[in-house]
Every structure is written in structure tokens, then in C-alpha cells.
Automatic annotation (TrEMBL):
Residues 352-588 form the ABC transporter domain. It comes from Alsobacter soli. SMART domains: AAA. It is a multi-pass membrane protein. SUPFAM superfamilies: P-loop containing nucleoside triphosphate hydrolases. This is ABC transporter. GO terms for cellular component: plasma membrane. The chain crosses the membrane at residues 20-42, 54-81, 93-113, 125-145, 165-184, 219-240, 252-279, 291-316. The keyword Transmembrane helix applies. InterPro entries: AAA+_ATPase, ABC_AA/LPS_Transport, ABC_transp_permease, ABC_transporter-like_ATP-bd, BCA_ABC_TP_C, LivM-like, P-loop_NTPase. It is found in: Cell membrane. The keyword Nucleotide-binding applies. Keywords: ATP-binding, Cell membrane, Membrane, Nucleotide-binding, Transmembrane, Transmembrane helix, Transport.
Length: 594
């Protein structure tokens, strides 16, 4: 796992206090569990809550942070439990060795399941995890010589240090506290930021240099790992495991727990787990009336989810946040540093060389054998009527589409077959025609993600990235609003944040897809000035835009596309007076060059 650091200076300031409070709270809980003599019934409930919570925190990571569904958490929980059960009882292995084996097993299973299904999204991923869950259950029930079948495994002993229920409970609470801390800190680590970026916008994440596949598989594997850990602890706690404890229904219970408590925080996991374990206990007296118990239980869950869509903890923290903002926490002012850009450093006179590039969608030749090259340090415009293949060209350049034919050379490197994040690492930066920001994050967090990729030759310590992100925001004129959520910005300013995100990544070539679209005339002037400031730093720009005033103002070279083919290429005056260009534009009213 990547190192865990803070996001914002504000978070950095409060971190020691938060950590202190956390450690104090955890110590009290562990001390209480170790010394207070609960009756066996309460001990069991607490043991179940602690071990389940560990597994539910896995879902906080995969679902809450990374936005992936996992309907097989009970299977991972069961694999961990059976590793301890079978290992200690049938093979006489040491308890800790069994936990280790269990964790390796679930990690491998989780990574395999994640890697083999990660290309599938949403419903398909849900179906595959359900299948995995069913397979695990079937094996537990039917592979009797190994698993003991439906009878399960009994007589599981605890490790020497923690033989009493009391001591073992204290141990489980300690593990829960450590896991809770790691999950709490994860969102502000580079890995956690990558997960949140993938959840918010996969395409933008990949173009910001994040390996989306690997991030998803990692999230899935962490989820499985925590599931297995919870299960292994559970087996030691209850001394008995059987297949029905780890069925699909239990996976749904795990999912309900995390949704009920709130997916955004490990506290939500504990709250949801505690509640779903306690509600049945509270309603125990209703069990004599068949059906009534389930009806009330179901109704309670539905009501909570209905009125608290972010879960109980989400609802509470919304409340405290509102209260907190009224008490007026002063925003942190960044010391204004200048934005350093790699600019024109490099050897070859051409930053980009495109040869015979084609992209066909079935019979439609969106891009059809286009060649051009972009000179280092120049502003190069790609224009053409609507539907002429400009965005498709940019998507092929940045790796979102694989080309049907042709080659792309970036700064001397053949990037034709690289995935998007590898091209970003190689020096490509881009913005989107339809804005793609990470919508649950602040402006500065968005830009930090752009700066974080391994190809960026800047310091990766958190404070350095934070300073760089703030410098990039200041460069586009939004320095004093860095800590606001991106959704609170106007459309035009969101475009600027996208440009800042790309700049922070230190590209050698910046691709801009219609940055002026949707801007009013003042904003267009500001954008023109910004583009000139970027160009003055020596950065090479390839810009698509419809606004001919802007294009002829900033570009020194223009390539024109029509029906996916290049129809002109050269300096602005000769290109815009080229008869083919005039004819192409006469046919499409909204894109008229003049
Ligand atoms: P421009 O950006 O120049 O307006 P585009 O590159 O977006 O044009 O589109 C070029 C052509 O390719 C259009 O006819 C468009 O409908 C088509 N096209 C773009 N993306 C796809 C896609 N994913 N699938 C099928 N057709 C597409
Ligand atoms: Mg377009």
C-alpha cells in the first residue's frame, strides 16, 4: 500500500489531534473489552460486531471509496473463517499461521476475481461476484472430505495469549481499531485519492495518469483481505463455523450494514454493523409471531435508507459539517508559488507526430488517414466542422480509443498502443469537451490528482504536491478558491480547473478540446490570455476550437479536418483562405470561421 499522507493543510493541522482522539477512544474500548466482565451473551454480540465490522470496512473501501460492487463479502469472510477452522482443527496448525494462510488465500482470490472481472462494470460485476459467492458456498457444503460439509467445523481453539473470551474480544477490538484507522486515513493517501478519482470519473482518472484497472483490483483485493481477516477472527471467537454462516444472504447483510451506516467512513461501517446485529436482538420478543419480526426488521432498514440516503453516519456528519461551517473555520491561504512547467525542454523539434491515423466506428470513418506534426513550443490548432473527427482524433491521441490504423509518436516515443495513463506519464495532458472533474472533491484535490502521476518530475511529498496544485490554480486565476468543492464553480471556472489539473501534471504536450465552448465573451478573453501565458512558458499546445477569433489569435499553425480527412495544414492566413476550407465551412452554419 502507498504511504498515507494528508490532503489539505487544514487536515494536516487537525491530524495529530484527530489521531490522539482516535487512539484514546480505541484504548478505552480495548481496556473496557479486556477488563469489564460482560455476560456471555453480550460478549458474543460484541465479538460478532467487532469481527463483522472488519469485513464491512472492506466494503467501505471497495464501494465507498472506489465505487465497485462486491456481493461476495461473506464468501471472503467464510474463506478466512475456514482457513482458521480447518487449519487449527484438522491440520493442527498454529492459529497465527492459519490467519496468514487465510489472508493469502483471500488476497489471491480477491485479486483474481477483481482482475478477471474489472472490465465489466455495474451489473456484470455484481453477477460475477454473486456467482463466486455461490461457488464458495457450494464447495463448503459439498466437498465433505475437506470441509466437513454442512456440519461445519467445531472445536476451533483460540491462540495461547487470548484463550478467554474476554481477552479474545479485546484482541478483536484492537484489530478493528487498527483497521478502522487505516481505512479512515486511506482516502487522503495517493492510493485512496486514486480510488476516489476512479469512482468519480474513470476516464478523467486514466487521463490524469491513474492506472484504473490496477486501482480497482487493489480496492477489490483490500476488500477481500478485510473480509478474510474478519472471518478468521470470527472463527476464533465462536469456535464453530458452518456454510450457512457465509451464504449469499450474509453477503447481502454485509452490504446492508455498510449502506445503512454510511459508505463514506469506517465509523459508518461500525454503526451499520452494530445496528444490524442489535435490531434482531431487540426484536427477539416478536419472534413468536411468524413474519412480524421480519416485516418490522425490513421496515426499519427501509426507513433508515429512505430518509438517510448517505447512511446514518453520513446523515450525522452532514449535520456536524453544517454546524462546523457556522462556527467559521478560516480557510487556509497558500503561499503563492510560481508554477514550474517543463515547457519546451526536450530534443526533437517535433513534440507530436501523427501518421496515417484512422479510427473507424463500424462503417463510419470518423478519422481517416490523418497525418500532421506539432512543433515544439508552438500552439497548433485542429479545426473543422462539427463531426469532422476532431474529438475522435484527440481521443485516439490520448489512448481512449485504439486507432484502426496509423501511428502516434510523442516526444520521440511511440505511444500508439499505450493505455491512457501511460501516455500521461509519457507527457500528455488533456482537457475534455464535456468537463470531466472529480465531482466530490475540492479544486485543489482535483489538481493534486493531476500532479501525482509518476511521470511528473516534481517532488511527490504531500506538501509539495499541494503547493504545486495551488500554484496551478493560482496560474489559471482560481488560487483563492482552491479549497472549494468543484461543483460550486461556474462552468467556465470548471474548465479552468481542468486546465490547471492538466498543467499540474507537467505535460510536454497539452491537448485542449474546445476550451472556449460555453464561455461568455469576457471569459473567452480571459482564456485567450491564459493560453498565451501557457504558451509563453514554452509549453506546446494542440487546441481544438470553433472560435476562429481565438484560434487565429493564439495559433501559429492550423490543421483542418473534414469528414475525418485532413484538407489543409499550414499557417493561419493561408489555411483560412484555402478554398477547400472555405467550402467546408460554408456548408455548416454554426462553425463558420468568420
Ligand atoms: P468533432 O469533435 O469534430 O465534432 P467527433 O470526433 O466527435 O467530431 O465525431 C466524428 C464522427 O464520429 C461523428 O460522426 C460522430 O458521430 C462519430 N463518433 C464519435 N465517437 C463515436 C463513437 N464512440 N461511436 C460511434 N461513432 C462515433
Ligand atoms: Mg468535438
Amino acid at each position: 500500500m502507498t504511504s498515507i499522507t494528508d490532503v489539505s493543510p487544514a487536515a494536516r493541522r487537525t491530524a495529530p489531534l484527530g489521531l490522539l482522539a482516535y487512539v484514546a477512544l480505541a484504548a478505552v474500548a480495548v481496556f473496557f473489552a479486556a477488563t469489564h466482565s460482560f455476560d456471555a451473551y453480550i460478549t458474543n454480540i460484541l465479538m460478532q460486531a467487532a469481527t463483522y465490522s472488519v469485513a464491512v470496512m472492506g466494503l467501505t473501501v471497495v464501494l465507498g471509496l472506489c465505487g465497485q460492487i462486491n456481493l461476495a463479502q461473506a464468501a471472503f469472510f467464510g474463506l478466512g473463517a475456514y482457513a482458521v477452522g480447518l487449519g487449527t482443527v484438522d491440520y493442527g496448525l498454529n492459529f497465527w499461521v492459519c490467519i496468514g494462510l487465510g489472508l493469502v488465500t483471500v488476497l489471491a482470490a480477491g485479486a483474481f476475481l477483481g482482475a478477471s472481472t474489472i472490465r465489466l462494470g455495474g451489473h456484470y460485476l455484481a453477477m460475477v461476484t454473486i456467482s463466486f459467492q455461490q461457488i464458495v458456498t457450494l464447495v463448503m457444503i459439498n466437498w465433505i472430505p475437506v470441509t466437513h460439509g454442512p456440519d461445519g467445523v467445531s472445536g476451533i481453539s483460540r491462540p495461547g495469549l487470548f484463550t478467554t473470551a474476554q481477552a479474545y474480544l479485546a484482541f478483536c477490538v484492537t484489530v478493528l481499531a487498527v483497521v478502522g484507522y487505516l481505512v479512515w486515513r486511506l482516502p487522503s493517501s495517493p492510493l485512496g485519492r486514486a480510488m476516489r478519482a476512479v469512482r468519480d470519473n474513470e476516464l478523467a482518472a486514466s487521463v490524469a495518469g491513474i492506472d484504473v484497472q490496477r486501482t480497482k483490483v487493489t480496492a477489490f483485493a483490500i476488500c477481500a483481505l478485510l473480509g478474510g481477516l474478519g472471518g478468521a477472527l470470527f472463527a476464533g471467537g465462536f469456535a464453530y463455523v458452518s456454510p450457512d454462516q457465509f451464504s449469499f444472504a450474509e453477503s447481502i447483510v454485509f452490504l446492508t450494514m455498510v449502506l445503512l451506516g454510511g459508505v463514506a467512513s469506517p465509523i459508518g461501517a461500525v454503526v451499520g454493523t452494530g445496528l444490524l446485529i442489535l435490531i434482531p436482538e431487540w426484536l427477539r420478543f416478536l419472534k413468536s409471531v411468524p413474519g412480524l419480526y421480519l416485516a418490522i426488521y425490513g421496515l426499519a432498514v427501509i426507513l433508515i435508507v429512505l430518509f438517510m440516503p448517505d447512511g446514518i453516519w453520513g446523515w450525522i456528519s452532514q449535520f456536524t459539517r453544517r454546524f462546523g461551517s457556522r462556527s467559521g473555520v478560516a480557510p487556509v491561504r497558500a503561499e503563492a508559488t510560481a508554477l514550474e512547467l517543463r515547457g519546451s525542454s526536450g530534443h526533437a523539434p517535433e513534440v507530436l507526430r501523427v501518421e496515417g491515423l484512422a479510427k473507424h466506428f463500424g462503417g463510419l470513418k470518423a478519422v481517416d488517414g490523418v497525418s500532421f506534426s506539432v512543433k515544439r513550443g508552438s500552439v497548433h490548432a485542429l479545426i473543422g466542422p462539427n463531426g469532422s473527427g476532431k474529438t475522435t482524433t484527440l481521443n485516439v491521441l490520448s489512448g481512449i480509443y485504439a486507432p484502426t490504423a496509423g501511428s502516434i509518436t510523442l516526444d520521440g516515443l511511440d505511444v500508439t498502443n499505450l493505455p491512457p495513463h501511460r501516455r500521461t506519464i509519457a507527457g500528455l495532458g488533456r482537457t475534455f469537451q464535456n468537463i470531466r472533474l472529480f465531482r466530490t472533491m475540492t479544486a485543489v484535490e482535483n489538481v493534486i490528482i493531476g500532479a501525482e502521476h509518476p511521470g511528473n518530475p516534481v517532488q511527490k511529498a504531500h506538501h509539495a504536491l499541494d503547493a504545486r496544485a495551488r500554484a496551478a490554480l493560482a496560474f489559471v486565476g482560481l488560487g483563492d478558491r482552491a479549497d472549494e468543492l468543484v461543483t460550486s464553480f461556474s462552468y467556465g471556472h470548471q474548465r479552468l480547473i481542468e486546465i490547471a489539473r492538466a498543467l499540474a501534471g507537467n505535460p510536454t504536450l497539452l491537448l485542449l478540446d474546445e476550451p472556449a465552448a460555453g464561455l461568455n465573451s469576457t471569459e473567452k478573453l480571459e482564456l485567450t490570455a491564459l493560453l498565451k501565458r501557457i504558451a509563453a512558458k514554452g509549453l506546446t499546445i494542440l487546441i481544438i476550437d470553433h472560435d476562429m477569433t481565438l484560434v487565429s489569435d493564439v495559433a501559429e499553425h492550423i490543421t483542418v479536418l473534414n469528414f475525418g480527412r485532413r484538407i489543409a495544414d499550414g499557417d493561419p492566413v493561408s489555411v483560412l483562405n484555402h478554398p477547400d476550407v472555405v467550402t467546408a465551412y460554408l456548408g455548416s452554419e454554426p462553425d463558420a470561421p468568420y
